[in-house]
Amino acid sequence: MNDDTSAAPGRQGPVPEYAEAPEGPRGWTSVVVESPIGPLLLAATAAGLVRVAFHADARTAARERAALTARLGGPEDPATGAVAVEAAGRALSGYFAGDGALAAQPLDWSLVTGFQREVLRVLAAEVPFGAVVGYGELARRVGQPGAAQAVGLAMGANPLPLFVACHRVVERDGGIGGFGGGVETKRRLLALEGVLPQPLF
Description:
Number of helices: 6
Low-confidence stretches: 1-15
Mean pLDDT: 87
Strand content: 5-15%
Largest sheet: 3 strands, antiparallel
Radius of gyration: 16 Å
């Protein structure tokens, strides 16, 4: 990974709200929504959106829900977090329709800690719709120059993609870098935001 940043003019989206979830078992709910990049699983606690997963076919959704049951300490509760997942679904509909930056949502950061949380929060606050940043530049912004590889790992384990836009982190040499949702998905998201040209087909 390389260490410069590149940017394209874009509209500054609203900064997400950050919620500190209480300790101990918590209720949560989830829903799978269709999108132009495939089905997405959205899960939320009372504190806010806690997980977004790509390619959420039946098998993937079941695996994600089992992992959330283990990590959040309890089974799914349809009532808890329902408002948050519905709001997130509406925000995604607008985003994919070309309305611009995703509407800010309350986010539950309990699935990330330490350096990863710090990096993701800086990304959410400082890299808006229509802009990109290099891995090394993002490392510098959190006071860890030379930690580009660690930034890449943090992006790969981001539990809140799209709402914490790790697709905007790219390589210095013009490569778009890796992405948990797949490189083609990353290309489509960057094209939607005007960073790359829209594909012909």
